[in-house]
Amino acid sequence: LQFYCSKLLYSKPTVYKPVSTELLQFYCSKLLYSNLTVYIPVSTELLQFCSSKLLYSNLTVYIPVSTELLQFYCSKLLCSKPTVYKPVSTELLQFYCSKLLYSKPTVYKPVST
Predict the structure, then answer these.
(1) Taken in order 39, 45, 50, 56, is the CA torsion positive or negative?
(2) pLDDT of 59-98, one tens digit each?
(3) Domain ranges for the chain
(4) 35: which residues sit within 8 A by CB, 6+ positions away?
(5) What is the C-alpha separation between 57 and 66, in angstroms, rounded?
(6) What is the rounded average pLDDT of the residues 22-33?
Protein backbone atom coordinates (compact mmCIF):
# COMPACT_ATOMS: atom_id res chain seq x y z
CA LEU A 1 0.00 0.00 0.00
CA GLN A 2 2.87 2.38 0.66
CA PHE A 3 4.05 1.65 -2.85
CA TYR A 4 0.50 2.18 -4.07
CA CYS A 5 0.23 5.52 -2.29
CA SER A 6 3.53 6.72 -3.72
CA LYS A 7 2.30 5.87 -7.19
CA LEU A 8 -0.90 7.80 -6.58
CA LEU A 9 1.08 11.01 -6.38
CA TYR A 10 1.46 10.78 -10.15
CA SER A 11 -1.86 9.31 -11.21
CA LYS A 12 -5.62 9.56 -10.86
CA PRO A 13 -6.80 6.08 -9.96
CA THR A 14 -10.36 5.00 -9.37
CA VAL A 15 -9.75 2.00 -7.12
CA TYR A 16 -10.86 2.20 -3.49
CA LYS A 17 -8.62 0.28 -1.11
CA PRO A 18 -9.03 -0.39 2.61
CA VAL A 19 -6.12 0.95 4.64
CA SER A 20 -4.97 0.97 8.24
CA THR A 21 -5.20 4.11 10.34
CA GLU A 22 -1.43 4.51 10.28
CA LEU A 23 -1.22 4.27 6.52
CA LEU A 24 -4.13 6.62 6.05
CA GLN A 25 -2.39 9.19 8.22
CA PHE A 26 0.71 8.82 6.07
CA TYR A 27 -1.43 9.05 2.96
CA CYS A 28 -3.24 12.18 4.13
CA SER A 29 0.04 13.93 4.85
CA LYS A 30 1.16 13.16 1.30
CA LEU A 31 -2.09 14.53 -0.07
CA LEU A 32 -1.35 17.95 1.34
CA TYR A 33 0.91 18.44 -1.66
CA SER A 34 -1.29 16.95 -4.36
CA ASN A 35 -4.76 17.11 -5.85
CA LEU A 36 -5.67 13.50 -5.33
CA THR A 37 -8.86 11.91 -4.20
CA VAL A 38 -8.51 10.21 -0.84
CA TYR A 39 -9.56 6.60 -0.53
CA ILE A 40 -11.08 5.88 2.86
CA PRO A 41 -10.88 2.54 4.70
CA VAL A 42 -13.92 0.32 4.86
CA SER A 43 -14.57 -3.29 5.81
CA THR A 44 -13.92 -5.82 3.07
CA GLU A 45 -17.51 -7.00 3.15
CA LEU A 46 -18.95 -3.53 2.74
CA LEU A 47 -16.49 -2.64 0.02
CA GLN A 48 -17.44 -5.75 -1.92
CA PHE A 49 -21.12 -4.90 -1.56
CA CYS A 50 -20.64 -1.31 -2.55
CA SER A 51 -18.42 -2.19 -5.49
CA SER A 52 -20.93 -4.68 -6.81
CA LYS A 53 -23.68 -2.08 -6.62
CA LEU A 54 -21.62 0.36 -8.63
CA LEU A 55 -20.58 -1.94 -11.45
CA TYR A 56 -23.07 -0.27 -13.74
CA SER A 57 -22.44 3.35 -12.85
CA ASN A 58 -19.62 5.87 -12.97
CA LEU A 59 -20.09 7.25 -9.49
CA THR A 60 -17.61 7.95 -6.77
CA VAL A 61 -18.44 6.09 -3.59
CA TYR A 62 -18.00 7.87 -0.28
CA ILE A 63 -16.95 5.33 2.28
CA PRO A 64 -17.58 5.51 6.04
CA VAL A 65 -14.71 6.21 8.41
CA SER A 66 -14.51 6.56 12.16
CA THR A 67 -15.27 9.97 13.64
CA GLU A 68 -11.80 10.21 15.13
CA LEU A 69 -10.11 9.46 11.85
CA LEU A 70 -12.36 11.82 9.95
CA GLN A 71 -11.53 14.62 12.37
CA PHE A 72 -7.84 13.95 11.84
CA TYR A 73 -8.31 13.75 8.10
CA CYS A 74 -10.26 17.00 7.90
CA SER A 75 -7.75 18.88 10.04
CA LYS A 76 -4.93 17.77 7.74
CA LEU A 77 -6.74 19.04 4.67
CA LEU A 78 -7.62 22.52 5.90
CA CYS A 79 -5.12 24.04 3.50
CA SER A 80 -6.34 22.25 0.39
CA LYS A 81 -9.54 21.75 -1.54
CA PRO A 82 -10.34 18.07 -1.13
CA THR A 83 -13.61 16.29 -1.62
CA VAL A 84 -14.86 15.52 1.87
CA TYR A 85 -15.84 11.96 2.68
CA LYS A 86 -18.51 11.71 5.36
CA PRO A 87 -19.19 8.77 7.69
CA VAL A 88 -22.45 6.88 7.40
CA SER A 89 -23.87 3.76 8.98
CA THR A 90 -23.49 0.46 7.15
CA GLU A 91 -27.24 0.16 6.66
CA LEU A 92 -27.55 3.67 5.31
CA LEU A 93 -24.63 3.24 2.96
CA GLN A 94 -26.18 0.09 1.55
CA PHE A 95 -29.44 1.94 0.95
CA TYR A 96 -27.58 4.90 -0.46
CA CYS A 97 -25.50 2.83 -2.86
CA SER A 98 -28.60 1.19 -4.28
CA LYS A 99 -30.13 4.62 -4.86
CA LEU A 100 -26.98 5.86 -6.57
CA LEU A 101 -27.55 3.45 -9.43
CA TYR A 102 -30.16 5.87 -10.72
CA SER A 103 -28.57 9.23 -10.05
CA LYS A 104 -25.34 11.14 -10.48
CA PRO A 105 -24.81 13.23 -7.37
CA THR A 106 -21.49 14.82 -6.58
CA VAL A 107 -21.85 15.50 -2.85
CA TYR A 108 -22.44 12.77 -0.30
CA LYS A 109 -23.70 14.05 3.05
CA PRO A 110 -24.19 12.17 6.33
CA VAL A 111 -27.77 11.76 7.42
CA SER A 112 -29.42 10.20 10.43
CA THR A 113 -31.08 6.85 9.97
Answers:
(1) positive
(2) 444 444 555 555 555 554 444 444 444 555 556 555 555 5
(3) 2-45+52-100
(4) 80
(5) 26
(6) 51
Within the chain, how many helices (H) and strands (E) appear? 5, 0
- Hey, how many other C-beta atoms are within 10 angstroms of the C-beta on 40? 23
Of the listed ranges 11-20, 22-31, 43-52, the least confidently predicted one is 11-20
Q: Give the span between the Cα atoms of 9 and 3, in whole angstroms.
A: 10
63/17 Cα distance (integer angstroms): 10
CA distance 23 to 33: 16
Residues 61, 17, 4, 27: is their CA dihedral positive or negative?
positive
CA 22, 109, 63, 89 torsion-angle sign: positive
State the Cα–Cα distance between residues 93 and 90, nearest whole angstrom.
5
- What is the pTM for the complete model shown? 0.17
Cα angle for residues 23, 72, 87 (degrees, 5° grid)? 90
CA distance 88 to 3: 29
